[in-house]
């Protein structure tokens, strides 16, 4: 018999909390009994109905009720069993549950301040307001959106400069990407498919609080040899993958498509307001999967800052029509860790970009047994006399062959060189495990090229620009991010850098 706790401890023992003084965390109330809960504010709407705030023994909880047309059995209780398995800083937790006639109730912790969909609307409203695109806004609307943005982005509510509020809120949006990907990776590592990822199911609070919620459509495939399933419920049509909408077999990569939709909405907000984004999905049902052609046109010229095309390129990878071409959740998290190293060049986007939950990065030994100076050349060639005329997305363009290269005087110390491509490229990430560290491409425009130099284990970069990322073997690697502006008007452009490697 499982022991129960009368006091609530958010970090442990939630599944055994005696919330109703019945000696168990799951209570069966008779039809004639009254459930001892009081509805508070409406927190939103889940798959099966509204969710309200309630309070139990001084603890604020989210109260979710589900009406079951048939007798409550295994299918109806699966959401409870899935949430019970979860133990991650970015996943909602189960505080208690009950049955009451045809109703199944869940008590969830914690209570958030809003969901991502609401926060996106807030940021969009204030951004358009700062540009003078909203006529005669009410003072109440401005106050509501501003206050919530300040709460979620840990900004002083007394801040009166609208542009500063918007900047802080957008920085918070960038940090949401890594935390959400970390939560999805945790689910997939534990063989759980969410099946309804969308902004409404990502809860936010101050101090960078974020929780993935609503596991009503989720499936635990721990006991299956294959994580793919056939047909079943769609989840939310707007965000579901093409194979899900077609009722074909789908696996965890369908979650990655939905995550790509979320990444797109957040990243595109730097160039396109939500109304313009909805305009991209004007065909058929307004879903992403039925409007990918219009969305992919955005990738061609995206960029409001030198490097914000990098997370957009990651979104493009996840929005592939082919499920097998999408990166896994682990690969997405790894890419995000690499991209977070570019905060030295663009802190507004990449500061806190990667989720650091559970990571304990090493501290290099101050006693450097060996210090080695190396020379690095970065740049690109361009062959203007070999350019060719193409039509892409209805536009006439000239594309000319180029080679991007990284030359290192001691390549034996390098584990890999990773090129991160512009969102217009079909390949978002290209890894070179050995020299030559160079790639060929045909360019029709310029952008900021980004690469990361990964050292072999046991070595680290002695540079203020360097950082650490977790390796696939459980260890850490020292990485050095580099950028340069591509040049198309001379046969070759390069720059030289001197760096130090320690061991």
TrEMBL record:
Residues 37-343 form the Protein kinase domain. PROSITE patterns: PROTEIN_KINASE_DOM, PROTEIN_KINASE_ST, YEATS. Signal peptide: none annotated. One of its GO terms (cellular component) is nucleus. Keywords: ATP-binding, Kinase, Nucleotide-binding, Nucleus, Transferase. One of its GO terms (biological process) is negative regulation of G2/MI transition of meiotic cell cycle. It comes from the Eukaryota. InterPro entries: CC_SR_Kinase (IPR050339), Kinase-like_dom_sf (IPR011009), Prot_kinase_dom (IPR000719), Ser/Thr_kinase_AS (IPR008271), YEATS_dom (IPR055129). It is found in: Nucleus. SMART domains: S_TKc. Residues 366-503 form the YEATS domain. CDD domains: PKc. It holds the Pfam family Pkinase. One of its GO terms (molecular function) is protein kinase activity. Belongs to the protein kinase superfamily. Ser/Thr protein kinase family. GCN2 subfamily. This is Kinase-like domain-containing protein.
């Amino acid at each position: 018999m499982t022991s129960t706790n009368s006091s609530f401890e958010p970090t442990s023992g939630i599944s055994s909390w005696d919330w109703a003084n019945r000696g168990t965390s799951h209570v069966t109330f008779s039809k004639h009994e009254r459930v001892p809960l009081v509805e508070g504010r409406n927190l939103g709407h889940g798959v099966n109905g509204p969710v309200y705030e309630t309070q139990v023994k001084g603890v604020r909880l989210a109260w979710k009720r589900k009406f079951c047309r048939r007798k409550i059995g295994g299918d109806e209780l699966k959401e409870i069993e899935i949430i019970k398995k979860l133990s991650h800083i970015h996943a909602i937790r189960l505080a208690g549950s009950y049955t009451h006639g045809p109703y199944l109730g869940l008590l969830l912790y914690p209570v958030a301040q809003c969901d991502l969909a609401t926060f996106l609307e807030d940021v969009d409203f204030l951004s358009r307001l700062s540009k003078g695109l909203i006529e005669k806004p009410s003072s109440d609307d401005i106050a509501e959106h501003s206050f919530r943005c300040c709460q979620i982005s840990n900004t002083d509510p007394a801040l009166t400069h609208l542009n500063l509020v918007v900047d802080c809120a957008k920085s918070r949006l960038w940090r949401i990407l890594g935390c959400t990907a970390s939560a999805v990776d945790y689910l997939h590592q534990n063989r759980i498919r969410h099946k309804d990822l969308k902004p409404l199911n990502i809860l936010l609070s101050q101090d960078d609080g974020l929780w993935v919620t609503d596991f009503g459509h989720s499936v635990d495939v721990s006991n299956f040899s294959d994580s793919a399933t056939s047909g079943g419920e769609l989840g939310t049509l707007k965000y579901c993958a093409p194979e899900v909408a077609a009722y074909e077999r789908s696996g965890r990569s369908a979650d990655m498509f939905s995550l790509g939709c979320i990444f797109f909405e957040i990243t595109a907000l730097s160039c396109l307001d939500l109304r313009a984004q909805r305009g991209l999905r004007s065909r058929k049902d307004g879903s992403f999967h039925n409007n990918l052609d219009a969305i992919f046109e955005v990738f061609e010229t995206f960029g409001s800052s030198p490097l914000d095309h990098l997370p957009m390129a990651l979104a493009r990878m996840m929005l592939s029509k082919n499920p097998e071409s999408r990166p896994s959740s682990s690969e997405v998290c790894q890419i995000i860790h690499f991209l977070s190293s570019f905060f030295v060049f663009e802190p507004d986007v990449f500061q806190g970009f990667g989720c650091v939950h559970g990571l304990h990065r090493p501290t290099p030994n101050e006693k450097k047994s060996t210090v080695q100076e190396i020379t690095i050349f970065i740049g690109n060639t361009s062959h203007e006399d070999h350019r060719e005329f193409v039509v892409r997305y209805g536009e006439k363009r000239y594309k000319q062959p180029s080679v991007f290269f990284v030359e290192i005087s001691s390549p034996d110390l390098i584990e890999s060189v990773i090129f991160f491509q512009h969102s217009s490229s079909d390949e978002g990430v290209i890894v070179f495990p050995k020299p030559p560290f160079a790639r060929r491409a045909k360019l029709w425009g310029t952008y900021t090229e980004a690469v990361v130099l990964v050292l072999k284990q046991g070595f680290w970069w002695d540079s203020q620009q360097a950082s650490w990322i977790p390796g696939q073997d459980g260890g850490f690697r020292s990485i050095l991010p580099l950028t340069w502006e591509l040049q198309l008007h001379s046969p070759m452009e390069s720059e030289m850098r001197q760096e130090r490697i320690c061991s």
